[in-house]
Structures are given as structure tokens and as C-alpha cells.
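Good morning C.,

I know you're traveling, so I'll keep this short. The sequence:
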Amino acid sequence: MVLGGGEADGTGYAPAGRDAAMDGALESLYGGGGGSRRTAGERSAGLGGSAPHVARWLGDIRTYFPGPVVQVMQRDAIERLGLAALLLEPEMLEAVEPDVHLVGTLLSLNKAMPDTTKETARAVVRKVVEQLEKRLAARTRATLTGALDRSARISRPRHHDIDWDRTIRANLKNYLPEYRTVVPERLVGYGRAARAVKKEVVLCIDQSGSMAASVVYASVFGAVLASMRSIATRLVVFDTAVVDLTDQLDDPVDVLFGTQLGGGTDINRALAYCQSKITRPADTVVVLISDLYEGGIRDEMLKRVAAMKAAGVEFVTLLALSDEGAPAYDREHAAALAALGAPAFACTPDLFPEVMAAALEKRPLPVP
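The C-alpha cells, ready to paste straight into the viewer:
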């Protein structure tokens, strides 16, 4: 706003030097091009159609603006100026600042991507995945390991393993009013998670186009969960078809390139598949990540959720797994799931470990 554009900014001063270069970069994206005024409703692309011009522009914005601003401008350029096709060129990909939204765009272009670009695209995706793993993996493992330890109850715990809250609750009948204390006849303690599988987690991910960021984060978390010996992890993606990507969980980049963003949505079919793979309901957590716009059979979907919960499955519904805030979602379906005891809510990546820990321990979820 300070830099303005043309004579309409009202400052009476023309930007020079670095300010002029910044103004030019902004004008190319948000202005009418060439410093001209736009008429009402007119929309024009100031970056032109040539890849070299766009590559120079990408280099300019990385020079003049901080990383988060660069990512926003790149996203706007892709949406406003139709630059998605240029991302199919290796030289363009090398010039772009990689982030979660860029990964989503690349995945949506995956089928149209020429062979000469695919290796560069994988390198870009891998860079983002490695950044996310560095940010999220250690905390996720620590949080869930603690939850698995606490979920294994023992009756003869060592002193530092005593669960005092549950011990007091279990011995309230032994309260002595004269001493104002509880005499614990039975101790309840935390166990220690053994190497054997303690819990099973099924991540069921909607891969419709609106869920791109959620697919990226869920794939990273799926790989982290799969690396924990005490958790058996299954990852399923769906639109109108269902694809099980569990055998690719050792590499989240392979998982991401195994998805196909876009298309319709059949949540009922996806849940039917997940339900068929559950062998230990009481030790299973199903995480449905979807905006709940169901294209399948609504009543059947709700019946499946009710049946899984009745069998002892912990069912978690995430409307989004991203940093983007509250998403658009089907409120009627969300209310119906909440009535079944499966509240639907959006979740940030930083909150996800706490949500999973609560589900593994069968305690109330930390709904924002």
C-alpha cells in the first residue's frame, strides 16, 4: 500500500532504487501491467507468457521479500495468472520457493507432468517433506510414546509409574474421614510400551482437490507413525475410488506421488474398506481427514461410523490437517458425526500429536 502504483497513490513521490524494484514485482502480479490503470472488472497478467520473464520475477521476489511473503505471492501468481502450466518446466521449478501449497499444485499436475520434469518435482517435494519431518517427527514420536506407555495399565507399579488420579478414583471407598485421606489398597500404574504392536492406526484421507495441504501433512504423519514399532499404521486415500498406500509409508514422497488430487468423494466406500481391515477394534484408532462433502451413500457412511464405535474403535474426524484455519465443510454431516460421539474439527499439524495421544489413551480429544 505504501509503494502504490502510478499517479493514484497520492504521495507525489515516485519510488526509486530497491523500492522501485519491489513496486515493479508487485505491479506485475497485482497491477494492470506496465503501470497502467485497470478499468472495473478488468483482469490482466503482468508477468507475460515467457518462462524466462517469470523466472526473473521469481528471483526478484525472493530477493526483495521474506520467505512467507514469497510463498503467498507464488500462490497468488499460480491462481491469478494461470502459471500452473509453467511449473511443468524444470527450470521454473528450480526457481520456485518450495512450500506445502506448491507441493499440492505439483501433485495435482502429476499426471500431466513430462518425464523431464518429474525428477525435479520429486526433489522439490522431498525438500518440503524433509522440512516438515524435521519440524514434526520428534515431538510426535515423544508424545505418542508417552501415550502408549500410559495406555498400558499395571497393578503393581513402581513408585514413579503410579497413576495417582486413577489410583485415588479406584480407592475412594477407602476414604478415612478422621484422617481426611484415602488408603490405597490397589495401585494403578502406567506400563511401559513393549516392542510388540500395542495400537493400530488407520489414516483415511480425502484426496479431493480442496484437501491438498491436508494430504501433504497426513502423508508425513503417516510415515512418522509407521516408523514406531508399537503402532501398526495403515494409510488409505480416496476420492470415488479407494487406494491403499500402506506399503509405501517408508517414503512419504512415494505416498504423495501415489495420490491423485481432484475428482469426487465417496467417504462411505473408503470407510467400508477401512472397516474391513480392522482386526482389533478396541485397540484401533481410525482418523478420517475430509471436508465431509459426501458423494456416496450418506446414511451408510453414518452407520459404518456407528458400528465401528460400537465395536470399540476410536474414531476421529478432522475437517482439515493444515495451518490454514477453518475450512469449508458439510455442516450437516459434521453434526451427525458429533451426535455419534465423533466430533469433527479442523486440526493444525502442531496439535495433531496431542489429538492422537488422546485417541490412543481413549480420553476426550483436545478439540480447539
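Safe travels,
E.
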